[in-house]
Amino acid sequence: MIDFMKRAVERAKKTMRLDIGGPFGACVVKDGKVISVASNTVLKDKDPTCHAEMNAIRKACKKLQTYDLSGCELYATGYPCPMCLSAIIWANIKTVYYGTDLKDAENIGFRDDFIYNYIKGKNLQVLSLQQVKKPDDCKELFKEYAALKKTIY
Length: 153
Known about the structure:
single chain, 7 helices, four-stranded mixed beta sheet, alpha+beta
């Protein structure tokens, strides 16, 4: 377990020092074997979704040729943000080991709390969600997908 976290820390340390991203690394493991190791690449990629966990999940899915990471564990240097938690859940990863908590991230300037507060129904000025008045085309699209009996993931 410690070796997996060490891999995540080392990757994060390397890319953090190169100004590629923050102090975040992640390692996906299955059956005791490393599937992927990644770090935060938000700054390099100029993409706010390139968190370490997201990058590690993408790499693991590509390597295993699946969108379902059932049976995998994830090791992360920090407590996953709401986006990463959602991706972890969508990927069917059931266990996450993390090194630092939300307070540790907040103490160095990261602001996950404003998203958690939005989800809790507080701080609603962060985002305005509005359903269009006539969503008929969208509903037809969903009906067609259901009728085609496509894969639900």
